[in-house]
Design a protein that fits this description.
about 300 residues, alpha+beta, Glutamine Phosphoribosylpyrophosphate, subunit 1, domain 1, eight-stranded mixed beta sheet, four-stranded antiparallel beta sheet, 8 helices, about 25% strand, globular
Amino acid sequence: MKPSLIVHGGAWNIPDAAIIPCREGCRRALETGWKILSAGGAAIDAVEAAIVVLEEDPVFDAGVGSHLNREGNVQLDAIVMDGATLKAGAVAAVERIRNPIRLARKIMEESEHMMFVGPGAEQFAVEHGIALCAPEELIIDSERNAWRRCLADQHAAQNHHGHADGTVGAVALDASGLLFAGTSTGGTCCKLPGRVGDSPLIGCGCYADAQTGGVSCTGHGEGIMKIVMAKSAIDLLRRAPDPQAAANAAVDLLHIRANTTGGLILLDASGKPAAQFNTPYMAHGYVQPDGSFFVSP
């Protein structure tokens, strides 16, 4: 089977100054994941590696450079899902994990449970060889300044380093036919401590079923949860196997039933990519059939 990869860096009203950094970040994620897949590597490795690149890039709202919550701390969420077994691993509200997608994978592979939160997730990390970081490592000056402005006035895209609302994700199919999807986020600016959005919730921010396809979502988390958007997209794809039509219908459903904004990326079971959003932009990219990269915006 021919491998395939699609990534995203969030859907939002992207400032002009952030367009090139977002495009370059998505391209680096694609390059990293595709290097693995094109050499015969595993989809789970490609998803993890691509998302780590995005988590390490402060232009995106995941890992380093994430939004701060009301108390001025970063709390991170992530999930990864295996389309063959429907097993997932997820973490939520962690403050000392630099790359939460790595911990999500560890949970998927080495725990009977599928989600850990807060201190329990961090304890699981230590017990399974993932080092904790200082919370300050996740905070960048521009987001600290944005947090201060948002507290003093109102939330605005121009306050942030390229992401008023954002999440990152990847979906990969490898040469063996294995399909994985993953999502990682820092959530929303000034969120209440302990708030968890759609991103780490199976069926909401992420879903993978090898018989149908894999999805990673981004946007207004509470709205995405209302329609269980990732699973809704997979169900739509199951009924009518056109990935772009399924992506379009899922985002239409988000608008009609939840009255909010967001987007998603999708690979069907054969690796055909699709992306859709109802925000002004969604940073995303995928590997085309000839091996070249499409990157938007």
